[in-house]
């Protein structure tokens, strides 16, 4: 450690309460990486603030010294956005955890950025509301990270991405300036909407410390069905028919191609298989509402009409909470990829919904032509134009051809007018491919914004742009 570095750590430690600064050599390894699979990097130090003023003091000192600061939340990101770089200060907000207020009149909840998503959901439910952002990592991911990556999840088709749930933010700029914009109002057109700069910026423009979130009325009914269709045109017919007949009550539309469905059921014997027939596309359909006397009937009428129209081959409607969980179990089994496939190359891409079926066929054909033994699984939030693709080349073992597969898939997605990232962010993993989804003018504008707010480039350097 150089004298200059030692001096900086001394100033940082003196400026913050005891136990807030942990030297890198003493920091637990869980702060050295996120879920992206990138090699762990030991930071210069880990700062664990409890208050916004601690974040501001940390960034002020980092800005003065020209030392990088990498914000972290629950570390569940897959694109490397929270991954440390050598010589950086990790700013992990896990201690900034708590619900500050639930306002039943404004239907808002104010929380600290390090609060787990599941905690926000539970507090909303206890107050008689629902917070409708939902992810599989709900128990681990932090709301600040959800906002900074503009997270999506299973209910986007009805409630939108994280951006749609945020009314106000408090955040800290690179030089330590605290910006408090904790708005609760749905209508507020007083100048630039500054929070929109931070949402989805992955900690490159500022560090989110608190948020005012929009709550929804808690549905009193939830209906779930597993549908079986013959092909992708039938998927589109099902989506169109469900939207027409269910309207805004349509909450989820999750599509699983045979590659995903058969592989996960075959590899995970604990899953209970609802249908015996293989080879078809399966869709989880969910609707929620507020009319216990009619909602279930309307849902079944919708499905009956789709069967009569020849859209559905077969359908199972959940008759209990247990059956609902069994229907969702295969879709939520993605955390078991390691057991079923081994090392994977995962994609979170967006495409116009009408083109997704053709894209799947062409992508799998191209992958198979290059790697004949490839295993490619496709599934996703197709009602949101979001396709997930998981690739494994068995003959490559632990040395998967990641860069070659990335080049192939992202080039195809860009050529199809899609996006390389639908809901998981850019981080470092997707940064080389951002030009497949953004024009030179868009990229130049992003760089100008970054330069204006972070002129020394200390905030999460090397990420996004």
Helix and strand topology:
Elements: H1 3-15, E1 21-23, E2 45-47, H2 52-65, E3 69-72, E4 89-92, E5 99-103, E6 108-112, H3 117-126, E7 129-130, H4 143-148, H5 156-159, E8 166-172, E9 178-181, H6 195-198, E10 207-214, E11 216-217, E12 221-229, H7 232-246, E13 250-256, H8 258-267, E14 281-289, H9 295-308, E15 314-317, H10 321-331, H11 337-340, E16 345-350, H12 356-370, E17 375-381, E18 386-392, H13 402-415, H14 440-453
Helix pairs in contact: 1-2, 7-9, 12-13
Task: Write up what this structure looks like.
The two termini are 30 Å apart. This protein is α+β, with helices and mostly antiparallel strands and 465 residues long. Helix 7 runs antiparallel to helix 9 (295-308). It has 4 domains: 3-92, Uridine Diphospho-n-acetylenolpyruvylglucosamine Reductase, domain 2 (2-Layer Sandwich); 99-217, Uridine Diphospho-n-acetylenolpyruvylglucosamine Reductase, domain 3, CATH 3.30.465; 221-335, Alpha-Beta Plaits; 341-427, Alpha-Beta Plaits, CATH 3.30.70. The strands form 4 sheets. Strands 15-12-14-13-17-18-16 form a 7-stranded antiparallel beta sheet, sandwiched between helices. Strands 5-6-10-8-9 form a 5-stranded antiparallel beta sheet. The model has no long low-confidence stretch (mean pLDDT 95). It has helices at 3-15, 52-65, 117-126, 143-148, 156-159, 195-198, 232-246, 258-267, 295-308, 321-331, 337-340, 356-370, 402-415, 440-453, and strands at 21-23, 45-47, 69-72, 89-92, 99-103, 108-112, 129-130, 166-172, 178-181, 207-214, 216-217, 221-229, 250-256, 281-289, 314-317, 345-350, 375-381, 386-392. The radius of gyration is 23 Å and the shape is globular.
């Amino acid at each position: 450690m150089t004298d200059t570095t030692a001096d900086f750590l001394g100033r940082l430690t003196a400026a913050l309460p005891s136990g807030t600064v942990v030297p890198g050599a003493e920091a637990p390894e869980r702060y050295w990486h996120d879920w992206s699979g990138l090699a762990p990097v030991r930071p210069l130090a880990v700062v664990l603030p409890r208050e916004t003023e601690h974040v501001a003091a940390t960034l002020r000192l980092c800005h003065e010294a020209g030392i990088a600061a990498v914000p972290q939340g629950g570390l569940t990101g897959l694109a490397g956005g929270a991954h440390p770089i050598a010589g950086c200060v990790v700013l992990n907000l896990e201690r900034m955890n708590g619900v500050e207020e639930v306002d039943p009149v404004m239907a808002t909840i104010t929380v600290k950025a390090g609060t787990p998503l599941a905690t926000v959901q539970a507090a909303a439910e206890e107050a008689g509301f629902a917070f409708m952002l939902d992810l599989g990592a709900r128990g681990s991911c932090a709301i600040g990270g959800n906002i900074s990556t503009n997270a999506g999840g299973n209910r986007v088709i009805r409630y939108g991405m994280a951006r749609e749930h945020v009314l106000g933010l408090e955040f800290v700029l690179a030089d330590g300036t605290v910006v408090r914009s904790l708005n609760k109002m749905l209508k507020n057109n007083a100048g630039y909407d500054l929070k929109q700069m931070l949402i989805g910026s992955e900690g490159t423009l500022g560090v989110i410390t608190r948020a005012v979130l929009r709550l929804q009325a808690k549905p009193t009914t939830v209906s779930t069905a597993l549908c079986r269709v013959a092909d992708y045109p039938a998927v589109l017919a099902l989506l169109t028919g469900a939207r027409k007949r269910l309207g805004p009550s349509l909450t989820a539309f999750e599509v699983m191609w045979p590659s995903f469905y058969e592989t996960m059921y075959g590899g995970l014997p604990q899953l209970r298989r609802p249908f015996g027939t293989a080879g078809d596309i399966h869709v989880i359909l969910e609707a929620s509402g507020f009319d216990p006397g009619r909602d279930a009937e309307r849902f079944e009428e919708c499905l009956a009409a789709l069967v009569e129209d020849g859209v559905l081959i077969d359908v199972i409607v959940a008759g209990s909470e247990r059956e609902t969980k069994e229907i969702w179990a295969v879709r939520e089994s993605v955390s078991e990829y390691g057991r079923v496939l081994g090392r994977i190359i995962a994609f979170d891409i967006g495409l116009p919904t009408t083109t997704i079926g053709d894209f799947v066929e062409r992508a799998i054909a191209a992958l198979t032509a290059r790697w004949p033994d490839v295993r490619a699984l496709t599934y996703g939030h197709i009602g949101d134009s979001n396709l997930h693709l998981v690739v494994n080349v068995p003959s490559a073992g632990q040395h998967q051809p990641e860069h070659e597969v990335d080049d192939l898939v992202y080039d195809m997605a860009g050529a199809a007018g899609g996006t390389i990232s639908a809901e998981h962010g850019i981080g470092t993993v997707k940064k080389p491919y951002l030009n497949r989804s953004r024009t030179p003018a868009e990229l130049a504008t992003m760089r100008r914004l970054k330069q204006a707010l972070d002129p020394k480039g200390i905030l999460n350097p090397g990420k996004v742009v």
